[in-house]
Amino acid sequence: MIQPAEISWFSALCDDDYEFMGVPDPALQSSFSHCHDIVLAAEKGGFDNVLLPSGYALGIDSIAIAGALAPLLKHMQLLVAVRCGEMWPPQLARQLATLDHMLRGRLTINIISSDLPGETLASAPRYARTLEVMNILRTLLAGRPLVHKGEFYNLELEAPRIAQQRASAPPFYFGGLSDDARDVAARAADVFLMWPDRIENIRVVLDDMRARAATYHRKLRFGYRVHVIVRETEAEARAAARRLMSRLDDSKGEEIRKKSLDASSFGVRRQAEMRDEADDEGFVEDNLWTGIGRARSGCGAAIVGDPDQVLKKIETYRALGLDAFIFSGYPHLAECDLFARLVLPRIDHAPLFSCSP
């Protein structure tokens, strides 16, 4: 039996909102006002969760914004991205525990295996450090005393008092396609997140991740981060996709892609490969369009079609075992409304994890 899906939207904290890709619009730049409006629209539209992304140089801080938004939300969860290489784990645990308290147990956490700004650590040690951070956070956020002796951290301390209200830590969402990333996910994630790919490739990755998790006597849930362009007809959706890219200068698109500190990751390379595999209109398979990846690093493809086609694509993913979806579209506020009206009411959905403060 297929369980209800978690349907999340995305708030553009990382200077990633456009009417025309690659053409900056001051009204769409990351700001508290703009990101606040997207998050409240997502709650009003009936979404289960919303991702607050994190980038070092780009946009605004995810934890600070989450603290400002938490008291305004009545029922929706927040998926707060944290670049765990940038912060001292006990300090990060206290901040996250405080957010969870403000959200009354509705915090979810997107762990990003990041470098320290200005420094570069090779993949294997960086992911080893990430695993230590995840283990430290899981212990402290569950309100348990910590005794940790690792390669990167040597800590013995009590959990923050505010975290001791919980019976377990908030769930960790984590992604990455490299072998190092997959191993960390199998060991320590609750939800393994993927970026868009062909159906056959998704199936291979899911099988691999299930097998890896089983070696650690664990089970994972699976998520999918993808853009969407939905209109009343397929012709209108494809026209909207063409309009979105109609003013993009390729050199500007390359500049945008290179701004991200993660621009050379395994997952980003796979998004570039999909663009090379696509047809003349940018479609790599039915209703999966790679054009967006010409002007952004990271998630680089969109589901494009009418409501029936978009729903069919989502249901195909769900049949594979994906049950946490993080959608976005350009401009994010307008596309949030379209998806909420045209597609969301037709999906059986609920938060993956119930509140457990």
What report would you give on this structure?
There is one protein chain. By secondary structure, this protein is α/β, with parallel strands linked by helices. The chain has 11 helices and 13 strands. The strands form 2 sheets. Strands 1-2-3-4-7-8-9-13 form an 8-stranded parallel β-barrel, surrounded by 8 helices. A two-stranded antiparallel sheet has the order 5-6. α1 packs parallel to α11 (332-342) and α4 (123-141) packs parallel to α5. The mean pLDDT is 93.
Low-confidence stretches: none
Number of helical regions:
11
Secondary-structure arrangement, i.e. CATH architecture of the domain at 6-227 and 321-333:
Alpha-Beta Barrel
Shape: globular
Helix content: 25-40%
Return the CATH topology of the domain at 6-227 and 321-333: TIM Barrel
Residues in β-strands, percent: 15-25%
Q: Over all CA atoms, what is the radius of gyration?
A: 19 Å
Mean pLDDT: 93
Assign the CATH superfamily of the domain at 6-227 and 321-333. Luciferase-like domain
Terminal-residue CA separation: 28 Å
Structural class: alpha/beta
At a glance:
This protein has 357 residues and is of the alpha/beta class.
Annotation keywords:
357 residues; alpha/beta; TIM Barrel; 8-stranded parallel barrel; 11 helices
List the helices and strands and how they pair.
Elements: E1 6-10, H1 32-45, E2 49-52, H2 62-69, E3 78-83, H3 89-102, E4 107-112, H4 123-141, E5 146-149, E6 154-157, E7 172-175, H5 179-188, E8 191-194, H6 199-215, E9 221-230, H7 234-245, H8 250-259, H9 266-277, E10 283-285, E11 288-289, E12 302-305, H10 307-320, E13 322-328, H11 332-342
Parallel strand pairs: 1-2, 1-13, 2-3, 3-4, 4-7, 7-8, 8-9, 9-12, 9-13
Antiparallel strand pairs: 5-6, 10-11, 11-12
